């Protein structure tokens, strides 16, 4: 009997899994493998929320495989060395994996291909496992990627996505391959108390419930901070516990304006992935340089600290930053306005903000995070790179009653209605009752500084 290895990376599921289905195709035995790569931990910053979520996903993947007669093999080390060692132990013929879009993932694929070929084995890399449409499947004339979302969306919407695959009924894993123990969830504590539970079952349950009860009101409700009416699928999509292609198919079958608006948002995910695939250096460098001379030094450091800790004196900014600390997740509107505040009002380098988000976000994703940060900082694909979001206007528009601020900034919980967005308007004793910081900067001063720096005054 032939044996194949399936290397799982950002695709921790058994449903709609092209590499697994291809590997099983001819009645093969399959070694489902996950390699913990210490280089990932060393290269990045600590991400305990994602580590905890990942532990859930691995436990769930193992359970999904065991239900079908298989099991997950977990190893630690360099992925190329570990895959080659497993290939030898299992006497496997080939290896299947999902295509990645980051520079890191591409280099890993290349190294693995070379190592396997040197040993007479093959690597099969499958597209449209992590994204709904393969990155690079559609390109505009004269470029290797779309730099503007709307034409990309138009084109993406016309493409036929592959049909989702059912989970295999049986997975046979050879017994002779050594595996480390799965991480015990209790040994991987998250830093955020309100972290969601990970795993394919959770993700699929959430998707079904969301399509049944949430999607219809998505179009009107997705920007309402207090209503919290978005899907919360992002961490499951990031770890591939649910498949992007399947989510799009199921949302389209659901139909309606809400589901359509939701699919458009999912397209943003593919959009950023195709940008990163074409420009891997945009993970750290400006996609389009504006020759920014970001603020540095003591004062900027103090402002950055206030922003991280949710004490800028702008209630909606602070509420969103505290939601991030507590849940390891932040509402998209919160991400937009906190990123604008950091990069424009405080004129601090987007990389500082992106790093802090990557440390805490359970859905922290190189393509989505770095390129959304660049979009907000005006160094990315935004066609209006100098737009600045005013946190008071944003607060009143997207949290009109102030409920979101009161939820996350308890110091201000006694303030009723939209007054909570402008606590500095309180005077005398009223003001003294609230132990809440003064604004780190006047908005007009922040705006003038930004415009001056960008040469627009
Ligand atoms: C500064 C900044 C940083 C961000 N960092 C990340 C990140 O690290 N990881 C991440 O998944 N998303 C990131 N986003 C995008 C977006 O905020 C989240 O995907 C969304 O808030 C997740 O919540 P949800 O699943 O309820 O989204 P929904 O509104 O239910 O949307 C469904 C799915 O569409 C995708 N999506 C929605 N909006 C975007 C977007 N603007 N860009 C890319 N994909 C999108 C996500 O996969 C999301 O799960 C960031 C946005 C900004 C402005």
TrEMBL record:
Keyword tags: Chromophore, FAD, Flavoprotein
UniProt source species: Streptomyces zaomyceticus
Named cofactor requirement(s): FAD
UniProt signal peptide: none
Protein name: DNA photolyase family protein
Pfam families: DNA_photolyase, FAD_binding_7
SUPFAM superfamilies the record matches: Cryptochrome/photolyase FAD-binding domain, Cryptochrome/photolyase, N-terminal domain
Gene3D superfamilies (alphabetical): 1.25.40.80, DNA Cyclobutane Dipyrimidine Photolyase, subunit A, domain 3, HUPs
Family from the record: Belongs to the DNA photolyase family.
Upper taxonomic lineage: Bacteria, Bacillati, Actinomycetota, Actinomycetes, Kitasatosporales
PANTHER family given in the database record: CRYPTOCHROME, CRYPTOCHROME CIRCADIAN CLOCK 5 ISOFORM X1
InterPro entries: Crypto/Photolyase_FAD-like_sf, Crypto/Photolyase_N_sf, Cryptochr/Photolyase_FAD-bd, Cryptochrome/DNA_photolyase_1, DNA_photolyase_1_CS_C, DNA_photolyase_N, Rossmann-like_a/b/a_fold
Span of domain Photolyase/cryptochrome alpha/beta: 2-131
UniProt KW Transport keyword: no
Keyword check for Lipid biosynthesis: no
């Amino acid at each position: 009997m032939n044996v194949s290895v399936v290397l799982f990376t950002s695709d921790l599921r058994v449903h709609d899994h092209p590499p697994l289905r291809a590997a099983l195709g001819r009645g093969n035995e399959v070694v489902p493998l996950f390699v913990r790569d210490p280089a990932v931990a060393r290269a990045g910053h600590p991400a305990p929320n994602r580590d905890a979520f990942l532990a859930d996903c691995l436990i769930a993947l193992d359970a999904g495989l065991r239900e079908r007669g298989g099991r997950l093999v977990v190893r630690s080390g360099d992925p190329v060395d570990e895959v080659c060692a497993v290939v030898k132990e299992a006497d496997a013929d080939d290896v299947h994996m999902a295509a990645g879009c980051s520079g890191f993932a591409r280099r890993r694929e290349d190294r693995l291909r070379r190592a396997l070929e040197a040993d007479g084995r093959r690597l099969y890399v499958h597209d449209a496992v992590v994204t709904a449409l393969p990155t690079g499947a559609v390109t505009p004339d004269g470029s290797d990627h779309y730099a503007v979302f709307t034409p990309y969306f138009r084109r993406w919407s016309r493409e036929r996505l592959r049909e989702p695959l059912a989970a295999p009924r049986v997975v046979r894993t050879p017994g002779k391959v050594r595996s480390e123990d799965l991480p015990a969830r209790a040994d991987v504590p998250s830093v955020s108390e309100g972290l969601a539970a990970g795993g394919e079952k959770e993700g699929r349950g959430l998707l079904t419930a969301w399509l049944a009860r949430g999607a219809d009101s998505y179009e009107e409700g997705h920007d309402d901070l207090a209503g919290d009416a978005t899907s919360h699928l992002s961490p499951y999509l990031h770890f591939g516990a649910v498949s992007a292609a399947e989510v799009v198919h199921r949302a389209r079958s659901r139909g309606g304006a809400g589901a359509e608006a939701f699919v458009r948002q999912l397209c943003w995910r593919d959009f950023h992935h195709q940008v990163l695939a074409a420009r891997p250096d945009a993970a750290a460098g400006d996609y389009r340089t504006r020759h920014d001379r970001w603020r540095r030094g003591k004062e900027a450091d103090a402002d950055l600290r206030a922003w991280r800790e949710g004490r800028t004196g702008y209630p909606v900014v602070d509420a969103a930053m505290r939601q991030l600390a507590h849940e390891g997740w932040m509402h998209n509107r919160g991400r937009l306005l906190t990123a604008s505040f950091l990069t424009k009002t405080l004129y601090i380098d987007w990389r500082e903000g992106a790093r802090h988000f990557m440390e805490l976000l359970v859905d922290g994703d190189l393509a989505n995070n770095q390129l959304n940060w660049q979009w907000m900082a005006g160094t990315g694909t935004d066609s209006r790179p100098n737009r600045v979001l005013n946190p008071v206007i944003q607060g009143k528009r997207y949290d009109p009653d102030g409920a979101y601020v009161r939820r996350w900034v308890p110091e201000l919980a006694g303030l009723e209605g939209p007054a909570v967005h402008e606590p500095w308007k309180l005077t005398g004793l009223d003001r003294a009752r609230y132990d809440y910081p003064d604004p780190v900067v006047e908005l007009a001063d922040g705006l003038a500084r930004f415009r001056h720096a960008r040469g627009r005054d």
